Amino acid sequence: MTTQSQANDSVFSSLPLSKGLLTNLTTLGYKQMTPIQAKTLPLMLEGKDVIGQGKTGSGKTAAFGLALLHKLQVQRFRVQSVVLCPTRELADQVALEIRKLARAIHNIKVLTLCGGTPFGPQIGSLEHGAHIIVGTPGRVEEHVFKGTLRLDDVNMLVLDEADRMLEMGFQAALDNIIGRIPTKRQTLLFSATYPEKIAKISENIMNSPTLIEVKGSENNTNISQHFYKVENDVHRLEALQLLLLDCQACSSVVFCNTKKETQEVADSLAAEGFSVVALHGDLEQRDREQTLLRFANKSAAILVATDVAARGLDIEAVDLVINYHIARDSEVHVHRVGRTGRAGNLGKALSLFSDKESYKLALLEDYLEKVIKAEQLPDDSVRQSPPLQAQMATIQIDGGKKQKLRPGDILGALTGDKGIQGKLVGKINVFDNKAYVAVDKTVLNAALKKLSKGKMKGRNFKVRHLGSTGR
């Protein structure tokens, strides 16, 4: 294996991409490549196997997305590229990014295959054909075994967040899928960390790969980190509340190490009046989707999550990250902290630890190459300030793409004929049979009335307000 360390500050126009791809990149505002893009794209466009090590938000999705679109032959209506991701949320984000990058190329079909959704409709979509499959290992493996997905024409394989796929027990599924893909292919592997298991799998499935590493320090210079010592679990929860009251951040992510603890912390914060939602693997898929959506559209101020559930989470402008416990792995700590301070914004990361976690703290000191000193927690006077509430509320509409509903229809119904002001309408998300719109809390009742009594596409739709706390 070779290692390339020297980055360059190239612009996308310096790459041998098609005119359509370059024009679309300009339209999207993509000019300067991120470090991982500048290091990996030239190699990937040459057809080389690449291992890219970098955290979420480094631009890796656009990097491998451009590489597979560059290689794709649209006229060959066969599955030519497979992208495997650990979670449905990440797969959806990856598919969305690829579709965005492919806007200038007509008739490209990107299909997502993930668990938690009905199997039948996916078979129907596969029968109509696709160029690119983005999915989770378990569901892709199921389609391969049942013969509904053929991989004979695949010439590019991408393993995204490979470390998490192995952590989640997908090794056997990966082996089964890769075993059905022609050996004469290009393989790209992206991972936030580079444990021994990743090195081993790369030896077995890749051809003389180049390892590209983007250090976390390249991206975390605008994040201030603070550490606080707690005595026990009761004190830990009190400390969390004090920090949240003191910071009054519009958007906070609290990381817990277990699913059980995640729900318990969220329930405790909700009981104290905080605007909070929980995200972990025990939730039903629908609840997970709604939780992510409500946090992203600012209908909840705090997201309490496990690392696996939050993997691939790409939320704009997270103001504050709190580690309820120090992460089990130092690289995971850096990955968590990297959720804040995106796109040049200043970020803040706070970590709680007890004497029992001193060994993890020592490892983290070595990793960060700095001495960690505990700071004083805010005093009880901050309790005079009420918990910061979310600015927005989410309305669910029982209709979506299959009912020909578009974001413009929803916006028009809200703002037309003495409606609410457009500036009070937030994000609008339209799915197959459901749609969600965020509105300022001050106009929630007026918005519900406009949508329930007004017509969209010539008909009435049922609407309801998604609750502010809980599961």
UniProtKB/TrEMBL annotation:
SMART domains: DEXDc, HELICc. Residues 10-38 form the DEAD-box RNA helicase Q domain. GO terms for molecular function: ATP binding; hydrolase activity; nucleic acid binding; RNA helicase activity. A motif (Q motif) lies at residues 10-38. Residues 41-212 form the Helicase ATP-binding domain. It comes from the Bacteria. Keywords: ATP-binding, Helicase, Hydrolase, Nucleotide-binding. InterPro entries: DbpA/CsdA_RNA-bd_dom, DEAD/DEAH_box_helicase_dom, DEAD/DEAH_RhlB, DEAD_box_RNA_helicase, Helicase_ATP-bd, Helicase_C-like, Nucleotide-bd_a/b_plait_sf, P-loop_NTPase. It holds the Pfam family DbpA. CDD domains: DEADc, RRM_EcDbpA_like, SF2_C_DEAD. One of its GO terms (cellular component) is cytosol. Residues 222-383 form the Helicase C-terminal domain. Transmembrane segments: none annotated. Belongs to the DEAD box helicase family. PANTHER family: ATP-DEPENDENT RNA HELICASE DBPA, ATP-DEPENDENT RNA HELICASE RHLE-RELATED. This is ATP-dependent RNA helicase DbpA. The gene is dbpA.
